[in-house]
Structures are given as structure tokens and as C-alpha cells.
Specification:
Blueprint lengths: L8 H19 L2 E15 L2 E8 L8 E4 L3 E8 L7 E4 L25 E7 L5 E7 L9 E7 L13 E10 L4 H11 L8 E4 L16 E4 L4 E8 L5 E6 L4 E6 L2 E8 L1 E4 L4 E7 L8 E9 L11 E7 L7 H6 L13 H10 L18 E12 L14 E6 L2 E3 L6 H6 L32 E3 L2 E4 L3 E9 L8 E5 L4 E8 L18 E2 L1 E4 L3 E9 L3 E7 L2 H6 L2 E6 L20
Parallel strand pairs: 1-4, 3-8, 9-12, 11-19, 20-25, 22-23, 24-32
Antiparallel strand pairs: 1-2, 4-6, 5-7, 7-8, 9-10, 12-17, 13-16, 13-18, 14-15, 14-17, 18-19, 20-21, 25-30, 26-29, 26-31, 27-28, 27-30, 31-32
The structure holds 2-acetamido-2-deoxy-beta-D-glucopyranose (NAG) (12 copies) and copper (II) ion.
């Protein structure tokens, strides 16, 4: 140690950094999981159904790691469906082969095959989830993915007494693969779900369901960290707990400036962490927690309500009977179409933007893009009676391009230089035709079918405005970007005004996330730095819209330096 005296300040600093890296390396560990994808009979609402699960669990097992850890998850497919798994929100820096969307970063894992998802969690901590990323199999194949801070790093808020993942899902009494296949054939809207679920349980407001109720037992006077995940297929959700307010502290695994609210709004693909402070003295009291949709589309949707119970521990002396006599309080939730609540809630979200957790908003933009998102139509095949608008088939698009899924994976096609016939690298910067996007719809609602990618040189600073269209009615679309977090620098209603709206952008502490609701009849502006080479899917997280083509992919090229290049594919990467 004495020799330290002879080192200059600079060498000391270098030594210190080197030692911290060594220490960090020593702390970071590899965590192994085995996912056996297998069928399981599960009963809800008095309907027994054989569903696809991981290890027979529904919802699936929790994956837990610390920031900096490597996750090695071996997925073995024992079912007749093709499978892929996506680690929703994990950036996959240079490890795009582990991202998971079928035919984008990998061919599916076929029956009897295995694939090892192998990646490091770099610079991220918070609530994530894993889910199937092929067809509608994520209806039952999902589970929490919790990344805790590095050891000894505290949260930037009060240390919670306990942490509880709360995952929303959708239960269908019939087979979801049959539902989407039928909808794609007829061109109509797919059958809607029969219930929403909290951690797989529909709760007491449905028929034949009271015994399948999520119960959160709490002690008085404590702080609980609730980690909400919306894994529902097709519905944004409002959630509230009677007589309790929720302090939002994190969204999509990014710390936010805390704020209190009675109700949260969470779209499919989003996560939200809240602190729940329990009341000082309420032995045996029970309160309902409930979620129901925020829906803006013109089609039918599941308008039911899922409920769970928050129950205060009752001391041993209190009898069960006296506890039961206390009234059950119900929360009040916004109207199903309350767009003004949605706007005011999302406007409250701000990055924490502290020295330790800065908001590195790109201040300069290299490339500006303007994409429309919304529904449209496809022609009906001859001799068929289609059930979409005016006898057509429903379609959905970005800038009127309805994405056609290729039969081989885009990332392999790019990496091996064999992209011909798989995709074209010319996704348009702006829509081909201007129209009044949120006004009277154009008289031709047909989309065009293409597999186009937007190519970005490494480290391009991107600004993307996504504009909802009213072609088949305005609708909120939760857009999810793989491979990156983005900053939501602005949003508004009506048509985006490229002259005046940028003046109002927040470039200081905008929310940073991976899934954003494009407002119904409005627009959202996001910025991100394309510092992750690979092919990155971007799509609506309402699964029916993804099926109809509301998706595209970005191709981020390698940088010049060795650590700016996509790593080579693992040897067990599935083949098509
Ligand atoms: C599910 O139930 C059916 C009918 O009872 C049975 O034939 C099947 O083997 C069960 N499947 C599993 C995975 O247990
Ligand atoms: C995971 O990737 C690391 C780094 O490339 C490698 O050293 C390790 O062997 C891989 N593990 C498995 C099980 O493939
Ligand atoms: C969808 O709902 C309709 C009407 O209830 C029913 O006839 C049809 O069989 C359902 N389709 C599937 C795939 O469950
Ligand atoms: C529950 O069952 C009753 C009686 O069978 C029926 O009238 C009611 O519509 C059902 N409710 C739901 C939500 O299915
Ligand atoms: C809960 O809220 C309801 C309605 O706002 C109110 O009537 C009731 O007194 C509250 N109960 C408790 C225990 O706070
Ligand atoms: C839910 O939808 C059904 C069928 O469209 C309708 O009859 C019912 O009134 C709706 N319920 C609510 C609470 O909006
Ligand atoms: C919301 O729904 C209510 C009841 O169905 C309706 O009266 C109202 O006009 C709708 N509001 C909007 C903004 O669509
Ligand atoms: C359907 O056809 C009617 C009458 O031709 C027209 O007014 C309407 O705009 C059409 N709707 C769509 C969604 O194309
Ligand atoms: C677009 O349509 C809206 C609603 O009909 C209208 O208020 C607005 O003036 C139109 N904008 C343009 C540029 O035509
Ligand atoms: C549809 O709109 C285009 C462009 O606005 C116009 O040229 C065309 O005549 C219209 N077609 C019909 C059938 O109204
Ligand atoms: C686009 O694809 C859809 C769905 O596969 C198909 O029904 C439609 O005919 C295609 N449209 C064109 C113009 O080829
Ligand atoms: C599974 O994926 C392979 C490769 O893309 C494909 O050839 C096959 O038809 C798929 N099987 C099923 C059951 O979808
Ligand atoms: Cu959508």
C-alpha cells in the first residue's frame, strides 16, 4: 500500500478505475435458468384449457438478476408450436441474437429443439418481463423479469419493506391460436378475451372465479414496492386500489420523479413501479384493487373488470368473522374511453434525471423521421365474404406499409449478406402521400404489403414522430421499440406541426422508456441514439395490430471500433 504514495494522481485514478472494474466483474455473476416449454391444463372461469407454459407454471417463472449479471436461459420446446422468447425491455447490447422476435432476430425454436438465450444486462435495472414473441403465444407464455440494482446500490427512494410483481394478463376460454387464425382468414376483428387477470387470476367479479382471486396481504404502516407489468394481449389498462394512493417511482425500468396518483394507466408492453404505503392501523380491513381497459378503437373489446384484494393482517386475537364484517371498498376507475385522463397521466411522467441517473437526451438530431401508425384494409380474396370494413380485411400499417413477415430471420439475412429477396433497405422517411391524418379519412383505405427496413449508420441520433391516423377511426397504439430506450420529447393531439411543436419539446427530463402510447388522434415525438448494432423490431404492442402488420424494423449498422460491432451468432441459433 505504501507504494501508492509514489503514484501520480492520474495513475491513482486509473488504478482505482481498474480495481472497480475488477470488483464489479467479481460481483457480476452468471445466472442459469432452464425453460421447458410444455402444455398444462389450467382452469379459469370453469373452463379447462390446455395452455402453453414454461415449466408448467402460469404465469411463468420469475427471472431475477442484478444489473451487470449474465443471464443464460436454455429454452427447450416440448410443444407442437414453434416458440421464441423475448426479454422485453432488455437492450441486448451487441447481443441481438438473444432478443427473440420470430423471423426478425431468429428463426423459431422448433418442436424438440433448444436454444440458449445468453446476454448481459448492461446499465439497466427495474421491472421487465419475458414473453413469447411468435403469433399469439404470449397469451399464456409470460413472466416477470426483475433486474435488481447492483449489490449495495440503494433505490433513489425509500427502501421498501417488500417487493411484489403484479402482472396483468388476458384469459380466453378458447384457444388463442385458433382465434387469430380465424380472424386472419375472415378479415374481421378477433374474438375478445373472457377476462383480465392479475398474476393469472381473474378475481371475484367474474362468474365461477371467486376462488381464483389475487390477494395481497399487507402489514400496517409499511412501504411496498409494486412492480406492475401489462402482459395483456390487446388492452391498455387503468388500475386503482380503493382508498390508497400510489406513488409512481419508475416506468419501463427508468426511475422517474415520484408523483402520487389514485389510478395508473399501463399499456401492453409497459411496466410501472409504485410505492404503496399501507395505513397505520387497519386490522382485517380489505380493499379491492381493480383494472379495466382504456379503449379508443371502434371495434368490440373486453370491457370487463379484474379485481384482487388488498388485505391488512389481522392480529391473532381478531376472529375471522369480525374481519369479514368489514365492508369491501371498491376503487373508482376512469371511463373506458377517458383520453384526457390518459394524456394527463402520461404528461406527469418525467425522468428522475439525477447525477446518478441522468437523462441523456440527444440534443442534436442527425435524422428526422415521420411515420403514420394506424389501421387500413386489404382486399378480400375472390369468392370469399370478408368480415372487415365494407367486406374487406382488416390491416394495419406504419406509413401505409403493412409489414410482411419474411420466412427467414432478418438478422441472419443481414449478417450473412444475403438480404436479397428477404427485405429491402428503403423504409420511407415520410409517408408517400400526405393527407389530413386525423381529419376526414382518404377514400382509399388499402395498405401496401412490404418487408422494408430503415437503415441507420452506427451512432445516428434519431428523432421519430409517430402520428396516429383516423383512417378507420382514431386509436391509441402502444409502440414498442426493441434494442433501445427512447426519450418521449413531445406529444399532442391532431396533426403534428413540424414548425411549432418542436419548440415545446422537453429536452431536459423527458420520460425514457421502451413502449409509448401514440395518443388517440394525436402524435408522439421520440429521440434515441442508434448505438446498438443489429436488427430491431418496432411494433404496436396490441397483438392484433401486430398481426395485421403494424410493425417494421430498424437495421443499425456496425461502427468502426471492435466494440461497436454485432457479435457473431451463437452456434445453436435455430435455422428456418
Ligand atoms: C389435459 O386434459 C386432457 C383431458 O382430460 C388430457 O387428455 C390431457 O392429457 C391433459 N394434458 C396435460 C398436459 O395434462
Ligand atoms: C454465453 O456467452 C459467453 C460470452 O460469449 C460465453 O463465454 C459463454 O460460454 C456462453 N454460455 C453459454 C452457455 O452458451
Ligand atoms: C369466436 O366467436 C364466435 C362467436 O361467439 C364463435 O362462433 C367462434 O367459434 C369463435 N372462434 C374461436 C376461434 O373461438
Ligand atoms: C354469469 O352467469 C349468469 C348466470 O348464469 C349470467 O346471467 C351472467 O351473464 C354471467 N356473467 C358473465 C359476466 O358471464
Ligand atoms: C374509502 O373510500 C370511500 C369512498 O371514497 C369512503 O366512503 C370510505 O370512508 C373510505 N374508507 C376508508 C377506510 O378510508
Ligand atoms: C360491455 O360490452 C357489452 C357488449 O358490447 C355491453 O352490453 C355492456 O354494456 C358493456 N359494459 C360496460 C360496463 O361498458
Ligand atoms: C365516451 O363514452 C361515453 C359513453 O359511452 C360517450 O358518451 C362519450 O361520448 C365518449 N367520449 C369520447 C371522448 O369518445
Ligand atoms: C364503406 O362504404 C361506405 C359507402 O360506400 C362509405 O361511406 C364508407 O366510408 C366506407 N367505409 C370504409 C371504412 O371504407
Ligand atoms: C384536418 O381535419 C380536421 C378535422 O376535420 C380539421 O379541423 C383540420 O382543419 C384539418 N386540417 C387540415 C390541414 O386540413
Ligand atoms: C379519391 O381521392 C383522390 C385524391 O383525393 C381523387 O383523385 C379521387 O377522385 C377520389 N376517388 C373517389 C372514388 O372518390
Ligand atoms: C397483402 O397481404 C394480405 C394478407 O396476407 C393479403 O390478403 C392481400 O391480398 C395482400 N395485398 C396485396 C395488394 O397484395
Ligand atoms: C416452424 O418454423 C419452421 C421454420 O420457419 C417452419 O418451416 C414450420 O412450418 C413451422 N412450424 C409450425 C408448426 O408453425
Ligand atoms: Cu396498435
Amino acid at each position: 500500500m505504501a507504494s501508492f504514495q509514489f503514484l501520480s494522481g492520474v495513475s491513482m485514478r486509473i488504478l482505482f478505475v481498474a480495481m472497480s472494474v475488477l470488483l464489479w466483474k467479481a460481483n457480476a455473476i452468471t445466472r442459469h435458468y432452464q425453460f421447458n416449454v410444455e402444455m398444462k391444463n389450467v382452469t379459469r372461469l370453469c373452463h379447462t384449457k390446455s395452455i402453453v407454459t414454461v415449466n408448467g407454471q402460469f404465469p411463468g417463472p420469475r427471472v431475477i438478476a442484478n444489473e451487470g449479471d449474465r443471464l443464460v436461459i436454455r429454452v427447450t420446446n416440448h410443444v407442437s408450436h414453434n416458440i421464441t422468447i423475448h426479454w422485453h425491455g432488455i437492450r441486448q447490447l451487441r447481443s441481438g441474437w438473444a432478443d427473440g422476435p420470430a423471423y426478425v432476430t431468429q428463426c423459431p425454436i422448433q418442436t424438440g429443439q433448444s436454444y440458449v438465450y445468453n446476454y448481459t444486462v448492461v446499465g439497466q435495472r427495474g421491472t421487465f418481463f419475458w414473453h413469447a414473441h411468435i403469433s399469439w403465444l404470449r397469451a399464456t407464455l409470460y413472466g416477470p423479469l426483475i433486474i435488481l440494482p447492483k449489490n449495495n446500490t440503494p433505490y433513489p427512494f425509500e427502501k421498501p419493506y417488500k417487493e411484489v410483481p403484479i402482472v396483468f394478463g388476458e384469459w380466453f376460454n378458447t384457444d388463442t391460436e385458433a382465434i387469430i387464425n380465424q380472424a386472419m382468414k375472415t378479415g374481421g376483428g378477433p374474438n375478445v378475451s373472457d377476462a383480465y387477470t392479475i398474476n393469472g387470476l381473474p378475481g371475484p367479479l367474474y362468474n365461477c372465479s371467486a376462488k381464483d382471486t389475487f390477494k395481497l396481504k399487507v402489514k400496517p404502516g409499511k412501504t411496498y414496492l409494486l412492480r406492475f407489468i401489462n402482459a395483456a394481449l390487446n388492452d391498455e389498462l387503468f388500475f386503482s386500489i380503493a382508498n390508497h394512493s400510489l406513488r409512481v417511482v419508475d416506468a419501463d425500468a427508468i426511475y422517474v420523479k415520484p408523483f402520487d396518483t389514485e389510478t395508473i394507466l399501463i399499456t401492453p408492453g409497459q411496466t410501472t413501479n409504485v410505492l404503496l404505503k399501507t395505513k397505520p392501523n387497519f386490522p382485517g380491513a380489505t380493499f379491492l384493487m381493480a383494472a379495466r381497459p382504456y379503449a379508443t378503437g371502434s371495434g368490440t373489446f373486453d370491457n370487463t373488470t379484474v379485481a384482487g384484494i388488498l388485505e391488512y393482517e389481522s392480529p391473532a386475537l381478531h376472529s375471522v368473522i369480525s374481519a369479514k364484517k368489514l365492508p369491501l371498498h371498491k376503487p373508482s376507475l376512469p371511463a373506458l374511453n377517458d383520453t384526457s385522463f390518459a394524456a394527463s397521466f402520461t404528461n406527469k411522467l418525467r425522468s428522475l434525471a439525477s447525477p446518478q441517473f441522468p437523462a441523456n437526451v440527444p440534443q442534436n438530431v442527425d435524422k428526422h423521421f415521420f411515420f403514420t401508425v394506424g389501421l387500413g384494409t386489404n382486399p378480400c380474396d375472390q369468392n370469399q365474404a370478408c368480415q372487415g370494413p365494407n367486406g374487406t380485411k382488416f390491416a394495419a400499417s406504419i406509413s401505409n406499409i403493412s409489414f410482411v413477415q419474411p420466412t427467414t430471420a432478418l438478422l441472419q439475412a443481414h449478417f450473412t449478406g444475403k438480404s436479397g429477396g428477404v427485405y429491402s433497405p428503403d423504409f420511407p422517411i415520410n409517408p408517400f402521400h400526405w393527407f389530413n391524418y386525423t381529419g376526414t379519412p382518404p377514400n382509399n383505405t388499402m395498405v401496401q404489403n412490404e418487408t422494408k427496413l430503415m437503415v441507420l449508420p452506427y451512432n445516428t441520433s434519431v428523432e421519430l414522430v409517430m402520428q396516429d391516423t383516423s383512417i378507420l377511426g382514431a386509436e391509441s397504439h402502444p409502440l414498442h421499440l426493441h434494442g433501445f430506450n427512447f426519450f418521449v420529447v413531445g406529444q399532442g393531439f391532431g396533426n403534428y406541426d413540424p414548425k411549432n411543436d418542436p419548440k415545446k419539446f422537453n429536452l431536459v427530463d423527458p420520460i425514457e422508456r421502451n413502449t409509448v402510447g401514440v395518443p388517440s388522434g394525436g402524435w408522439v415525438a421520440i429521440r434515441f441514439l442508434a448505438d446498438n448494432p443489429g436488427v430491431w423490431f418496432m411494433h404496436c404492442h396490441l397483438e392484433v395490430h401486430t398481426s395485421w402488420g403494424l410493425k417494421m424494423a430498424w437495421l443499425v449498422l456496425d461502427g468502426k471500433l471492435p466494440n461497436q460491432k454485432l457479435l457473431p451468432p451463437p452456434a445453436d441459433l435455430p435455422k428456418c
